[in-house]
Design brief:
It comes from Nesterenkonia halotolerans. One of its GO terms (molecular function) is trehalose-phosphatase activity. Pathway: Glycan biosynthesis; trehalose biosynthesis. The model has no long low-confidence stretch (mean pLDDT 95). The chain has helices spanning 3-13, 42-52, 67-74, 103-121, 145-159, 183-194, 209-212, 241-255; strands spanning 18-22, 57-62, 81-84, 89-91, 127-131, 134-138, 166-170, 173-177, 198-203, 220-224, 233-235. By secondary structure, the chain is of the alpha/beta class. Helix content is 36%, strand content 20%. The structure holds ligand L263DTV3. Residues 23-26, 31-33, 35, 38, 63-65, 129, 136, 138, 140, 170-173, 175, 205 line the site of the ligand O=P(O)(O)OC[C@H]1O[C@H](O[C@H]2O[C@H](CO)[C@@H](O)[C@H](O)[C@H]2O)[C@H](O)[C@@H](O)[C@@H]1O.
């Protein structure tokens, strides 16, 4: 870990109340060719469990996955807050109703699924994930970069004819949703809900940039992997996240036996 990240994490860990918000795929879990096979890297899962047990720490997943899928794949410890569907779904621990689509949105979602299913039928390896607010066209298993990009382009063109379909690009995936929401809005909701002194957000994909965009001076943004980013810090891969989380947990556990510096 480079010194600037270590210094930022130590400063972050010393705040009395912190929020740690984590993307799932490509951040807590390695990317997999079968989307349903994604699971937290075991060291990351252990570090998340350790943090969840500490006072003054709120943990959250901020993911493009649906809430149901996120719960199943991530198996978050009790009390972890969940933002799903790129901000369109929330579980902040209360009785708030789940995502409810209007009749128009339901029709648009149906058209998105039909449109992407037709596109995928033309390309071996492509498949469509049905999601609460839309659908995702996956091309990770399409043979060849050029063909995969062509399938995504076909999807974008076909979706341009669907009223109310908003597009989100990701890693080997084109998502289309009927509810406009972002991870930035999700992180802002989490900040309002938990009132932390500082927020850490880590993510690997294009949609995570909207999360980094809402971070403030005391916050820490960590990009996982390669690519342009607004995050101030970077780690190479999901397996490197555990060291980040452990540093925070160890420093806070150490301080809990003495007075916390800023409390
Ligand atoms: O915001 P995230 O938690 O990172 O979720 C983003 C999307 O992740 C999933 O797709 C990605 O991960 C798959 C498993 O590693 C991989 O096969 C796929 O190519 C990636 O795009 C998920 O299937 C989507 O629904 C999420 O929106």
């Amino acid at each position: 870990m480079d010194q600037s990240l270590t210094t930022a994490l130590e400063r972050f860990a010393d705040h009395a109340k912190i929020l740690i918000a984590l993307d799932f795929d490509g951040c807590v879990a390695e990317l997999t060719s079968v989307a349903a096979d994604a699971r937290p890297v075991p060291e990351n899962a252990r570090a998340i469990e350790a943090l969840a047990a500490l006072d003054g720490v709120d943990l959250a997943y901020v993911s493009g996955r649906s809430l149901d899928t996120l719960r199943e794949l991530a198996s978050p410890p009790e009390g972890v807050l969940l933002i799903g569907s790129h901000g369109a779904e929330k579980d902040l621990g209360g009785d708030a109703p789940g995502l409810e689509l209007s009749t128009t949105e339901q029709m648009a979602r149906g058209q998105i699924i039909d449109t992407l299913t037709e596109v995928a039928a033309d390309a071996e390896g492509a498949w469509v994930e049905h999601k609460p607010a839309g659908a995702a066209l996956h091309v990770r298993n399409v043979d060849g970069e050029e063909l995969a990009e062509h399938v995504l382009e076909h999807g974008r063109a076909a979706l341009s004819l669907v009223d109310g379909a908003y597009l989100k690009n990701g890693k080997k995936v084109l998502e289309s949703v009927v509810v406009l929401a972002t991870k930035g809005e999700g992180i802002t909701d989490l900040r309002e809900h938990t009132s932390p002194d500082a927020v850490l957000f880590a993510g690997d994909d294009v949609t995570d940039e909207q999360g980094f965009a809402v971070l403030e001076a005391e916050d820490v943004g960590i990009k996982v992997g390669e690519g342009d980013t607004a995050a101030a810090h970077r780690i190479a891969a999901p397996k490197d996240l555990a060291a980040v989380l452990r540093l925070i947990a160890d420093r806070r556990a150490g301080h809990s036996q003495e007075a916390r510096p800023d409390s």
